[in-house]
Amino acid sequence: MTPQERARRSAEVMWARDAASQEMGMRIEDVGPGTATLSMTVEPRHANGHDICHGGYIFALADSAFAFACNSYNKLAVAQHNTITYLRPVRVGARMTAVAREVSLAGRTGVYDVAVEADGKVAAQFRGVSRVVEGEHFAEGEE
């Protein structure tokens, strides 16, 4: 199994159980070893009292991209620490795209940066630190 196949299979298994990301309208655009790209369209139900996307939804999109990136090696990884900086508002109707990339992987700890873009501009920067725990998404011999 190639690293790309492992990443895709891990994402398929995770996605099948990820009701939260699916219910928010997220979509996996791409996944690879240490990387993932997810997107979602901001709907009126995602708006806050300022009539812009609630920061929690922006965080959730970034967090989901982070999760698929750090779980791309068929090892169970969970968030240990996350931060986000909001740079500009995202309007209802905009398509947000979160691109996660691995910065460092040392032992069981990974560091990932996620850029959330909307309307061609970076709307938020997220940094996630992951921790590998016991288990895997699928047995490597499975087809």
Structure description:
- With 143 residues, the protein is α+β, with helices and mostly antiparallel strands.
- Helices cover 25% and strands 40% of the residues.
- A six-stranded antiparallel beta sheet has the order 1-2-4-5-6-3.
What's the gist of this structure?
GO terms for molecular function: acyl-CoA hydrolase activity. Keywords: Hydrolase. The chain has one domain: Thiol Ester Dehydrase, Chain A, CATH 3.10.129.10.
Secondary structure layout:
Blueprint: H1 3-17, H2 19-23, E1 27-32, E2 35-41, H3 55-70, E3 77-86, E4 95-106, E5 109-118, E6 121-132
Antiparallel strand pairs: 1-2, 2-4, 3-6, 4-5, 5-6
- Going by helix content, strand content and strand pairing, the class is alpha+beta
Estimate nothing, just give the exact number of structural domains.
Answer: 1
Largest sheet: 6 strands, antiparallel
| Overall outline | globular
Strand order of the largest sheet: 1-2-4-5-6-3
The total strand number stands at: 6
GO molecular function: acyl-CoA hydrolase activity
Protein name: Acyl-CoA thioesterase
Keywords: Hydrolase
Family: Belongs to the thioesterase PaaI family.
List keywords for this structure.
25% helix; HotDog_dom_sf; Thiol Ester Dehydrase, Chain A; 143 residues; 6-stranded antiparallel beta sheet; globular; 3 helices; single chain; Acyl-CoA_thioesterase_PaaI; alpha+beta
